[in-house]
Design a protein that fits this description.
eight-stranded mixed sheet; alpha+beta; 12% strand; 371 residues; elongated
Length: 371
């Protein structure tokens, strides 16, 4: 009846000398003691006696299931790829309501996984893949949304915004009004148009916002309104008229511009034009702001290409990160399985077991598992 002695001793019951009657009554006695002691048993001891041991239990066999390992690699990676792609490209620009609805569904699944992981953790004190995939899924969803929105704001949204506008050719700044070209995204000026650096100015609000008008043949516009302004940030002097914005500002062949559509910076450019109007005694009725560029169409296409390059890089990088963390978690779980058992008790090396009178209860054999 060694199992009976072991259970009686763990439960704090008296240990008596083995007899033939005790051996015959061992199964019934074992069941009665277990039923009687389950209510007062410590949760960890109860789990140790009644729950099958897994790979995470100390001293158990190290066996890993390949299916949850693969799921924990590909599911977070797939979530990141989906969220990043959803928030980076044309769906975010044209169907933003659909994007936010799908993202809501993604995070609803994450909340469901979180609830499952909490209940699994309460039922089984050992770590499980539920906990890992919950955190990995949530981190992938948040990282995918943040990276996708950053990629969208920096490259994709300006690209589609310019694509929605028209391309204006042979624009004569001396004869055209800004109100006639409010829907132009790319402007190609006539041969005799150039920047008027002598009437450039700036406005400073944290960043220095620089503006310079486009004129024809060095004369004032026939419309009496300076409506076409090249702009840039931090590329001019604060002491005098100066403009060095863009890589092609000094090129004599540059006669084109790429429209600026960011509302946050447009307000500051308008204030710079207002100051230039007051300083030089000129009028700008409907100013249009653009960056001075020799090949604006190539620049716009580069935005789209850069957005795709960023997406592919982040997808590959996330797969490597997912694989790395699953390997780390697998090694950690396998090492836990090789540790010594916290509940292992060598009865035969216990001096009380060898020397105590087995005919009477041994008070010192009772141990507390409340710690």
């Amino acid at each position: 009846p060694e199992p009976l002695h072991r259970v009686r001793r763990l439960l704090g019951c008296p240990v008596q000398a083995p007899t033939l009657l005790a051996e015959l009554r061992a199964p019934r006695e074992f069941e009665r003691m277990v039923r009687h002691g389950q209510e007062d048993m410590h949760p960890l001891l109860k789990q140790r006696l009644h729950v099958p041991r897994t790979v995470f239990a100390p001293g158990s066999r190290v066996v890993m299931n390949i299916i949850p390992m693969l799921l924990n690699i590909f599911v977070p990676w797939g979530v990141f790829t989906f969220c990043h792609g959803l928030t980076s490209f044309w769906t975010m620009y044209h169907e933003s309501h659909l994007v936010w609805s799908l993202l809501t569904l993604v995070f609803a699944v994450w909340l469901a996984l979180l609830v499952m992981a909490i209940f699994a953790r309460r039922g089984i004190a050992e770590p499980t893949w539920f906990t890992y995939i919950t955190w990995a899924y949530g981190a992938a969803a948040f990282a995918g949304c943040l990276c996708g929105i950053g990629n969208y704001v920096e490259y994709t949204r300006p690209y589609y915004a310019i694509q929605d506008l028209k391309v204006a050719h042979q624009v004569d700044a001396g004869r055209e009004l800004g109100q006639d070209l409010m829907d132009a995204g790319i402007l190609y000026f006539a041969h005799n148009n150039h920047l008027d650096i002598s009437r450039s100015w700036h406005f400073k609000h944290r960043t220095l916002y620089c503006v310079a008008p486009v004129i024809t043949n060095g004369t004032s516009p026939l419309t009496h309104s300076y409506d076409f302004w090249a702009v840039g940030e931090g590329c001019c002097s604060t002491a005098s008229a100066d403009f060095r914005c863009g890589p092609d500002w000094s090129s004599a062949t540059t006669r084109s511009g790429l429209r600026v559509l960011d509302d946050q910076v447009l307000a500051n450019y308008r204030l710079a034009v207002k100051q230039a109007e007051t300083l030089y005694g000129i009028v700008a009725t409907h100013p249009i702001f653009f960056t001075w560029s020799e090949d604006p169409l190539t620049e716009v296409n580069n935005w789209n290409a850069q957005a795709y390059h960023n997406y592919i890089f982040m997808v590959v990088f996330t797969f490597v990160v997912s694989l790395f963390f699953v390997m780390v978690a697998t090694c950690n779980y396998a090492w836990m399985g090789r540790a010594a058992s916290a509940y292992a008790v060598d009865f035969y090396s216990d001096p009380d077991w060898k020397t105590a009178n087995m005919a009477r209860p041994v008070a010192s054999a009772t141990r507390s598992y409340s710690a």
